[in-house]
Design brief:
- By secondary structure, this protein is mainly α.
- It has one domain: Endonuclease III, domain 1, CATH 1.10.340.30.
- Strand 1 and strand 2 form a beta hairpin.
- The longest helix has 21 residues.
- The radius of gyration is 18 Å and the shape is globular.
- The N and C termini lie far apart (52 Å).
- Keywords: Glycosidase, Hydrolase.
- This is DNA-3-methyladenine glycosylase I.
């Protein structure tokens, strides 16, 4: 029987002996996110915009903190409809700074509004956010899934996330550093970093095999 001493490195087994990446161990809510969202390919512009905004809010915090506040964030930012958020003004910033349901960081709130406006520009140029972001998928979207010190430390970047970060910054985006962009790529399925042995890894691989790659309009 697998337990914390016998499960493979980087994985844990629940009561049913299902193996998952150890980072989602904290709560059932976290495990559900790991099983049903993280690593599955996404093409929805709303999902992509939400994720890039929430990854920005995560800077300096844990993803679990943000995940637990996600519904409050959605309510505060009009469901992450980029067209609605792009119209937010200083009165909205003041309102959001007082919203205890979200992370009340003025700089990150202002960044979200700015990034909504930049997202509109990307959509106009590429036809969709998905067409833009999926350009940065690595040549091998399925990584080996083996443990490295970088994986265990939680500090991860890649040449593609560095290139994505650099390009977004040139376009006027903020809170889009290479580590933040790598987290976006992991979550939205541009890379599959579920470890070998994780029950969700093959599901993510199968979903990517069925995924129709977004292209520039």
């Amino acid at each position: 029987m697998l337990d914390e001493t016998t499960a493979p490195a980087g994985l844990f087994a629940d009561d049913s002996q299902t193996l998952r990446c150890v980072w989602c161990r904290a709560t059932p809510h976290y495990q559900h996110y790991h099983d049903h969202e993280w690593g599955l390919p996404a093409s929805s512009d709303t999902r992509l915009f939400e994720k890039i905004c929430l990854e920005g809010f995560q800077a300096g915090l844990s993803w679990l903190t943000i995940l637990n506040k996600r519904e409050a964030f959605r309510a505060a930012f009009a469901g992450f409809d980029m067209d609605k958020v792009a119209k937010f003004d200083e009165s909205d910033v003041k309102r959001l700074v007082l919203d205890a349901g979200i992370v009340r960081h003025r700089g990150k709130i202002a960044s979200t509004i700015n990034n909504a406006q930049r997202a509109q520009e990307l959509r106009k140029e590429f036809g969709s956010l998905a067409a833009y972001f999926w350009q940065f998928e690595p040549a091998s979207a399925s990584r080996p899934g083996t443990i490295t010190q970088q994986t265990l430390s939680g500090v991860t970047t890649s040449p593609e996330s560095i290139a994505l970060s650099k390009d977004l910054r040139k376009r006027g985006w903020s809170f889009v550093g290479p580590t933040t962009m790598y987290a976006l790529m992991q979550a939205m399925g541009l890379v599959n970093d579920h470890l070998e042995g994780c029950a969700a890894r093959d599901r993510a691989l199968a979903a990517r095999a069925m995924f129709k790659l977004p292209v520039k309009a």
